[in-house]
Amino acid sequence: MEQSVERVGGEERGERTPLGRVITSSVVGNIIEQFDFAIYGSMAALVFGPLFFPEFSQLAGTLAALATFAVGFVARPLGSIFFGHYGDRIGRKSMLVLCLLIAGSATFLMGVLPTYAAIGIWAPVLLVTLRFVQGFSFGGEYAGAVLMVAEYAPPERRGFFSGFVPAGSPVGLMLANGTVLLVALMPREEFLAWGWRLPFLLSIVLVAIGLYIRLKIYETPAFRRVRETGTEARMPIVDVLRRSPGRVLLAGGISFGFAAIFYITIIFLLSYGTSQLGISGNVLLIGTIIGAVFQIATILGFNALSDRVGRRPVIIGGALVSAAFAFPFFWLLQTGVPALVWLAITVMMVSSGAIYGPLAVLLAELFGTRLRYSGASIGYQLGATVGGGFSPLIAASILAWSGGGPWPVALYLVVVGLVAAACTYLLTETVRADMLEDVPAASYE
User: Fold this and answer.
1) Which of these, 259, 300, 301, 257, lies nearest to 425 by C-alpha position?
2) Closest CA to 144 of 221, 92, 88, 98
3) Is 50 exceeded by the pLDDT of residue 318?
4) What's the per-residue H, E or C state across 16-46?
5) 336, part of any domain
6) Helices 281-309 & 164-184 angle (0-180, nearest 10)
7) What's the sign of the alpha-carbon dihedral 326, 327, 328, 333?
8) Based on CB atoms within 10 Å of each CB, which residue in 111, 145, 272, 419 is the most buried?
9) What's the pTM value of the predicted model, to 2 decimals?
10) What distances in angstroms separate CA 361 from CA 375, 410, 432, one per listed residue?
11) 47 in helix, strand or coil?
12) Whole-number Å distance between alpha carbons of 378 and 332
């Protein structure tokens, strides 16, 4: 059937972007998100205490720096409401471009931010402000990136193709930790003076690449059909919370479990390993890079498996393995042997990847087209806020309460893994879901 060439919203009706370009656009955005968040988390654990909170004790300074890390996650649900609303009203593409512009600007400005020694209390105030802006913008990034791929992908391989988006997270983590590792090789005085700024400044290169690619893609056929038929939701967030509150909360529970496991592994571990176990920061960063390599490959494998057996079995399996490995994780870390430390990090990252990968496509399949951006965003970010933003701080706090003993943190990992498994079990299977069932047929299809 011939496609009309009438233009709608600056695009030709029926025009499609090649799937490979859509995937690249979405993956680049997630790489940038993880790169920015991992750099901030690493610097919060390694240097932000003395640079921005020098009046505090070492422990208090670390807790304060990790608290600023949490601020970015607090802002995410607000961003998910904003970008979810306009993503369902205006379109996925325009919101993803805006997300990248705001996040890129905030991250770059962190790299030129004066420290406490230069401007006093305004330094941590500005740091927290930029962190909030960064988190707000990323509140709409992940779900929007996943939706772009899921709404373009063929149903029978939707999980596999959508898996490239979460697989971008370990790529960003590798780039971030590799960059931090390189600048950390500088003399300590130079690293504290200006070396820590370099990763933030270099992020602008990734942002420019991401914007170039995103500006060249078309809106998804699913949303164009919503726009063509005039069936956009007037208040998407209100509608999704009224119609599907259970799905939003259960999706948030899965996201909470994954984010807690992941960010304790890559953020809390840096401060715990260096300050409590005497492990070199470079050893921990190398371990995270190794774990990220394995996570990339296994996320794609887990997502391909979810196309065959369903999303729920894969996510539940990953959550239960993460919970079962919580205590062995700390036993291996306490040996201080680099190879065993790397093994511990890798196993935890692979098992959490079994949650993270299929969760991406599950989020897209849980909600109808008209409410998909809002539902997926708020569901994911509610859980990520508590699990990702506060878990490193919670872990550091309960570690201090226990006098340095890691067993309460291990128990916390068990609990969050079981929460993710239980929430997944309570959801219905979504594999092969019809992602257009709530939208009337459009004239151009």
Assistant:
1) 257
2) 92
3) yes
4) CCCHHHHHHHHHHHHHHHHHHHHHHHHHHHH
5) yes
6) 170
7) positive
8) 145
9) 0.82
10) 13, 29, 11
11) coil
12) 36
295 in Cβ contact with 350 (< 8 Å) = yes
> For residue 67, what are the contacts with CB-CB under 8 A and spacing of at least 6?
393
Q: How many CB atoms lie within 10 A of CB 434?
A: 10
State the CATH number of the domain containing residue 60. 1.20.1250.20
Structure tokens at 265: 């592994």
Helix (H), strand (E) counts: the chain: 22, 2
User: Does 4 map to a domain?
Assistant: no
As a whole number of angstroms, the distance between CA 366 and CA 397 comes to: 35
Token pair belonging to 293: 């390599």
Q: Per the domain annotation, does 81 fall within a domain? A: yes
Mean pLDDT of 214-233: 83
Lowest mean pLDDT among 14-23, 203-212, 329-338: 14-23
Q: Which sign, positive or negative, has the C-alpha torsion 350, 354, 356, 358?
A: positive
Tell me the residue range of the domain where 359 lies: 19-431
43 pLDDT more than 50: yes
Distance of alpha carbon 445 from alpha carbon 431, whole angstroms = 24
**b/e sequence 187-225, b meaning 16+ C-beta within 10 Å:** eeeebeeebbbbbbebbeebbeebbebbeebbbbbbbbb
Task: Say how far apart CA 53 and CA 47 lie, in whole Å.
Answer: 10
The owner of tokens 């990702």 is 388
* Contact in structure between 336 and 278 (CB atoms under 8 Å): yes
Tell me if 188 is assigned to some domain.
yes
